[in-house]
Amino acid sequence: MEVGSSELGLLLACLREDCEFSQVESIDWDYFLDLVDWHGVGPGVASLIIGNSAVPPRVVDCLRNCARMNAMKNLRISAEFMRVSAALVSSGISSIAYKGVVLSQYLYGSTGQRSVSDIDLIIRPEDVLETITCLEELGFEDGYGLSAPERRSILGHFFEYGFARDGVAVDLHWRVVQHVAWPSLDTEKMRNELVPFQFYGEQVQVFSPEWMLVILCIHAAQHEWTHLKMFADIAKLLSKHPELEWQVVEGLAADSHSRRSLLVSLSLAHSHLGVSLPTQMLKAIDDDGHVDQIADRVSSQFWTSRTDPTSEQNDWRWMLFRTQGEHWIDRLRYMGGMAFGLRISDFRAFSIPRALAWMYYLVRPFRVGFVRLKRSAISRKLKSVV
């Protein structure tokens, strides 16, 4: 697979385990820094770029400052994580550390080696309200600015919800992905496969390597494989656990109807980050003739963008393309969920009593249609001006 630009090629080289680069001529360094920022891989790139005499000093200084700020921010997030985790334990609430600083420590041996934006915790659905009360007692407020009644109306239709305190965000998850668009892993079965991990002297629960790989691949697919940070994590996990039980991985992907998500993620990590895969997985990628086509489009179009390509991903043509060859039920679920699955903006647009919250699903198609028509009109107007 070819990369889209020399800047992306340099960035990918920085993320490989066998990182080796010497030719940095003709690099648009502003574009390179934009890519580093967009893909969330600043800390890892900084550790390789700093000290390289071929890189302009201003670029080195920028990456060094970003790495320093990221390390300081992650230390603060780590302290808040420990505080929240202790409060949940004292309240008898079981939580799973998901992504964030714990994943950074687990994969890279340091909380500062990964760009982190918030604290992600997976809790049981029945513990959601009690967990929210616990967070509010710690001083966290609703991250969306909604009232308690509005929030209760939303919780039954979402898979996550956010809170914030002094610039630190906590995302509560009671499913791995949005249930309307995506089949999800069995969260109760997931809890039987947790392993202990020491984080700043305290024991927390993390996923087994097999579960962690599938979850990371599903998460990457949920975001349309847009960010290279996700593949750096996948590469590091596979490097850390070379003796992975791949039959377990395939079984989990099959059970959650996420085989395509797994294969595209692995194909991208293998082709661009040099991740070694067993013969059975390489064969599975080859047997699905659509996997490499999707991976090629992701790397050539989405990875090279300086801006959020969400509008392209919400396009019907992309949805049809990325689901081609899948079972019609999975295809319909994904497309219907992406187009009509509820968003926070739907609840902000108008208020419906909690007992009638199902009516949001009836209104959603009209809101989507209106937004698309408005976007199309703006696009036509811009073209006519040009």
Topology:
Elements: H1 6-15, H2 29-39, H3 42-49, H4 57-90, E1 95-97, H5 100-108, E2 119-123, H6 128-137, E3 141-142, H7 148-155, E4 160-165, E5 168-173, H8 187-191, E6 194-199, E7 202-207, H9 209-222, H10 228-240, H11 246-255, H12 259-273, H13 279-287, H14 291-302, H15 310-313, H16 316-322, H17 328-340, H18 344-349, H19 359-385
Parallel strand pairs: 2-5
Antiparallel strand pairs: 1-2, 3-4, 4-5, 6-7
Helix pairs in contact: 1-2, 3-4, 9-10, 9-11, 9-12, 10-12, 12-13, 12-14
Outline of the structure:
The protein has 386 residues and is an alpha+beta fold.
CATH topology call of the largest domain: Beta Polymerase, domain 2
Q: Which CATH top level class of the largest domain fits?
A: Alpha Beta
Strand coverage percent = 5-15%
Q: Give average pLDDT, whole number.
A: 85
Q: How many DSSP helices? A: 19
Radius of gyration: 21 Å
Uncertain regions: pLDDT < 50 for 5+ in a row? none
Give helix and strand order, one letter per element, not per position: HHHHEHEHEHEEHEEHHHHHHHHHHH
Quickly give the structural class: alpha+beta
Major beta sheet, strand line-up: 1-2-5-4-3
- Topology, number of strands: 7
Overall shape: it is: globular
Q: First CA to last CA: what distance?
A: 35 Å
**Which percent range fits the helix content?**
55-70%
Largest sheet: 5 strands, mixed
CATH architecture of the largest domain: 2-Layer Sandwich
Count of spatially separate domains: 3
